[in-house]
Amino acid sequence: MLAVLLAVVFAAVEVLPGDAATATSERGDSAADVAARRHLLGLDRPLWERFWDWMTALPTGDLGTSARGQKVTDLLADPFPNTLLLGSAAFVLTVVASLALGCWAASRPGRPIDRIIGHAATSAFAVPEFVVSVGLLLVLSLWTGWLPAVTLTGADGNPTTWTMLIMPVLALVIPQTGWNTRIVRGALADQASAPHVEAAHLDGLPPHRVVLRHALPGALPAIATGIATSTGMLLGGAVAVETLFNYPGIGSVLAAAVAGRDAPLIAGVVMCAGAAISLVLLAADLVRARMLGART
């Protein structure tokens, strides 16, 4: 999957107007200068050769060299861990909030709280991350002054205080909590007709105990798969959120790479993000296999 995705990235950069040679050329460069730079960057070679060279170097940890002559691994050394921190915090909070809201709604089926949570979850997921970001900036920064509007970085390239993470994390958590709450609620609804769950209700157990002790374990495989698939949306939304909050992650790196038609740098960002998503999907598969009693 990653190999196909990276091939698509190289092909997409190739069809964009312009190339890295023209994007990085200086004012006053002649056509001969641009052509020489195009040869230096290897852009006069067939696309499949450039992609093959990049892929064969990948197992050694070499992500190639950017159009400006810098190692891609060096360019991503600082911003990618920051994006992982942002995405991990948002992922953990999303899981906790989704499980809590989904279980709460499932313990009150058909009641007002169930309908309120369902409508709120749908509305939250329908709002894009950048709209949530603007709303958070207005309320928590411009109107109240509780939180800084932008992220300031120290000499190490990291945010100077942890409070600067709050709004970017919330901007990612709110839409994904809406999506995953619906997944949790649907998985628990599927378990409601299971014999052991109906037997627990007939035994007079409290609704919350029936949900947590009897319905939730059977719903976990579906919940794990659903939550894992939202990892890509979290990292994708992080690009827009990081740009709005001036967060020092891969969002600004990717935006600059696309503007500069820098295929190795774009592929390096996609590779790192794709690897992280693949690991989460693998973890979800392992949870599902364990819960379903599958043997490897």
Quick synopsis:
This protein is mostly helical. The protein has 14 helices and no strands.
> Given the helix and strand composition, which structural class is it?
mainly alpha
Overall 3D geometry?
elongated
Oligomer category: single chain
Q: Name the helix and strand elements from N-terminus to C-terminus, one letter apiece.
A: HHHHHHHHHHHHHH
Fraction in helix: over 70%
| Overall pLDDT confidence | 86
State the name of the first-level CATH class of the largest domain: Mainly Alpha
Fourth-tier CATH superfamily name of the largest domain: MetI-like
Distance between the termini: 22 Å
- Tally of DSSP β-strands: 0
Count the helices. How many? 14
Family: Belongs to the binding-protein-dependent transport system permease family.
Membrane topology: Multi-pass membrane protein
Protein name: ABC transporter permease
InterPro entries: BPD_transp_1_N (IPR045621), MetI-like (IPR000515), MetI-like_sf (IPR035906)
